[in-house]
Amino acid sequence: MIWLDQFGDFTALDLAATLFLAITWLGSSWVVEHPPARRPSVSRLMAHYRRLWMREFVTRQPRIFDSQIVASLRQSTAFFASASMIAIGGIFALLGNADQLRGVAGDLAAGDAPVIVWEVKLLLTLLFAANAFLKFVWSNRLFGYCSVMMGAVPNDPDETAYARAAKAAELNILAARSYNRGLRVVYFGIASAAWLLGAGALILATLVTLTVILRREFASQSRVVLLQSEPEDR
Questions:
Q1: Closest CA relative to residue 191, chosen from 12, 15, 18
Q2: Are 194 and 134 in contact (CB under 8 A)?
């Protein structure tokens, strides 16, 4: 078939670069969410503080401050979900004008590949954009569940209040996890666009993205602040 023959324009390096991108994306998420016990990631440290937040929430009066925080978190997820939708629309527009894209990218990459090659490369970025959209939408919904659970916490700090607050904390952590996954998808989605310049550019962009993610999770100043010791409660 003619369209199968056109895939012959992809080299073994292209396949290796895309596999490297996928493995790095999934592997970095696993490392961030399952860090070594002696070296927790920022995401793991923040999960601890989210639980502390919900415990403090039980006795805080009034609770408007907490509801404003959740509203701000939901607003962030909605913003990125909208941005992902715009990116998806833009990629579809590029797919409809692949000939023009081939002219621009071909000049940069010094190549003259058929249109289907550029379409496949765009489809990879499209998959990342679609995945990010789903992650952000689900995160937004989980923050909504969290806000409902927070509303169900009684004013009296009894066992029921702390049990429901603990549930709200876990929902909050799940929402944040989905949000962080969506951000990592965005990072690697941007890196996947480097494939338009060639397999070597894709590998380099993937390495840079991986370095940025790991540094922020395991070697950032924010992590140092979170690990600073606090005075014991009297």
A1: 18
A2: no
